[in-house]
């Protein structure tokens, strides 16, 4: 029974936001997966935005970007509670209702839209991270997001907005 209790705060540092709403079992599973990846060298030097020496960071970024959707697909196939999202479902619902043409929303529509937004954010972040590592930097800056949007045709709708927002 204790395995199904929901973690509500009490985490150290910035982990509180990340863990809120996750079950104890899912938090333990995430920790075990992180430990396994660390043992496998997936988060070694030069991995996930840590930079690296020489051209190593770019190779890691290319590999990570190439495997992005494989990882997303594998993650989405695992059984999970779709009510627990990284993007707040109520906020998505509120945004969806801003459209005057939308009269009603099914219960599932905001949940699916939140998951789609999560995928979109992850993909754009991955592209921005790739731009960041090509400059041998460790921190994603707004210009990296703008440059990533310019590189990919699928982000054309963002380019004008980002050019206005980012000097």
UniProtKB/TrEMBL annotation:
Xref: SUPFAM superfamilies: Histone-fold
One GO CC term on file: nucleus
Stated name of the protein: Transcription factor CBF/NF-Y/archaeal histone domain-containing protein
Stored CDD domains: HFD_NFYC-like
Biased composition (Basic and acidic residues): 17-51
Localization terms from the record: Nucleus
Family: Belongs to the NFYC/HAP5 subunit family.
Domain Transcription factor CBF/NF-Y/archaeal histone residues, every copy: 86-148
Keywords: DNA-binding, Nucleus, Transcription, Transcription regulation
Region (Disordered): 1-67
GO molecular function, one term: protein heterodimerization activity
Organism, as annotated: Salpingoeca rosetta (strain ATCC 50818 / BSB-021)
InterPro entries the record matches: CBFA_NFYB_domain (IPR003958), Histone-fold (IPR009072), Transcr_DNA_Rep_Reg (IPR050568)
């Amino acid at each position: 029974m204790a395995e199904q209790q929901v973690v509500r705060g009490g985490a150290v540092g910035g982990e509180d936001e990340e863990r809120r709403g996750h079950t104890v079992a899912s938090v333990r599973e995430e920790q075990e997966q992180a430990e396994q990846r660390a043992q496998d060298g997936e988060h070694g030097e030069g991995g996930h935005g840590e930079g690296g020496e020489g051209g190593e960071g770019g190779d890691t970024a290319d590999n990570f970007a190439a495997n992005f959707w494989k990882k997303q697909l594998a993650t989405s196939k695992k059984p999970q509670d779709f009510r627990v999202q990284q993007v707040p479902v109520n906020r998505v619902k509120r945004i969806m209702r801003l459209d005057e043409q939308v009269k009603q929303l099914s219960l599932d529509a905001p949940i699916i839209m939140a998951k789609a937004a999560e995928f979109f954010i992850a993909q754009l972040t991955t592209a921005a991270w790739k731009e960041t590592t090509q400059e041998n930097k460790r921190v994603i800056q707004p210009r990296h997001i703008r440059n990533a949007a310019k590189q990919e045709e699928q982000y054309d709708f963002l380019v004008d907005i980002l050019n206005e927002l980012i000097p």
